[in-house]
Amino acid sequence: MAIVDVTVIPIGTETPSVSEYVADVQKILQKHQKEGTISFKLTPMSTLIEGDLSDLFRVVQEIHEAPFNKGISRVATNIRVDDRRDKKRKMEDKLASVQNKL
To answer: What is the pTM of this model?
Structure first.
C-alpha cells in the first residue's frame, strides 16, 4: 500500500480561487473510494491518497486531467509518493506511531 501526496494546480484561472477545481478532484476521488480502489483525505494544502501504486498513478492521471476538462490550458501537478513495502501501513498508522512517541 502506498500513499501519494498530490496537488493539482490549474494555471490561468479567472480568479485566485481554485476551490471549484479542488471540488472536481474530490468528486473523482469519492467515485474511486466508493469503488474501493483508494482512500483519501483532503488537507488545506494537498490531498493524500492511499492505495495500490498502480491504482494511485491511474487516479492521479485522472485528477490531473480534470482542470483541462473545464477549459484550463495549463495544469501543474505535484506528486510525492511514500511506498513502504516491508509492512502494510495506512495513513492512520503513521499518525498513531508519532502520537505514541509524544
So the answer is: 0.90
